[in-house]
Specification:
It holds the Pfam family Sm_multidrug_ex. It is globular and about 50 Å long. The mean pLDDT is 91. By secondary structure, it is mostly helical. 81% of the residues lie in helices and 0% in strands.
């Protein structure tokens, strides 16, 4: 994958990196600054845009794709039922207490398995409507991006922005 990304224009490489699940902007911002020497604000902007591209597509298609996958075979449907019930149990208390703000906070924490991809799945599981989910996920992505940017810049963060 790194070989493929190195062939791309640096801006496009950062966007594509931010689009990847698990990597998201947590990997894209340090790469943008460290490998491509982009300005911090440009790195943040490209990473946020790249992170949100698949999220819009997922928010629009996740319900249809899930229904199609569940119809493939009873064992697939059983796995989805278990996975959705398990995820709902793990996060329902937070959503009951905080509502959609919990979605934003979940996405904003730049730790493994707390990014925009997982937040999109949670929005689907908790029935959060497209526009509402997009606003809260986007806000969480921006907050996570700022946290990652500041961590990437270290102690000189405020001087270089």
């Amino acid at each position: 994958m790194l070989e493929y990304l190195s062939q791309l224009n640096p801006y496009l490489a950062v966007i594509v990196t931010a689009m990847l699940p698990l990597v998201e902007l947590r990997g894209a911002i340090p790469i943008a600054i460290g490998a491509y020497h982009l300005s911090p604000l440009l790195a943040l902007g490209l990473a946020v845009v790249g992170n949100l591209i698949p999220i819009v597509v997922l928010l629009l298609l996740l319900e249809r794709v899930t229904k199609w996958l569940r119809a493939l075979h009873p064992s697939v449907d059983k796995w989805f039922a278990w996975f959705f019930a398990h995820t709902h149990r793990r996060h329902s208390a937070k959503f009951e207490r905080w509502g959609s703000l919990a979605l934003m906070l979940f996405v904003a924490v730049p730790l493994p398995m707390t990014g925009a991809w997982t937040g999109t799945l949670l929005a689907y599981l908790f029935g959060i409507k497209f526009h509402h989910a997009l606003v809260f996920i986007s806000t969480g992505v921006l907050i996570a991006g700022i946290i990652v940017l500041l961590a990437s810049l270290g102690g000189t963060a405020l001087l270089t922005i």
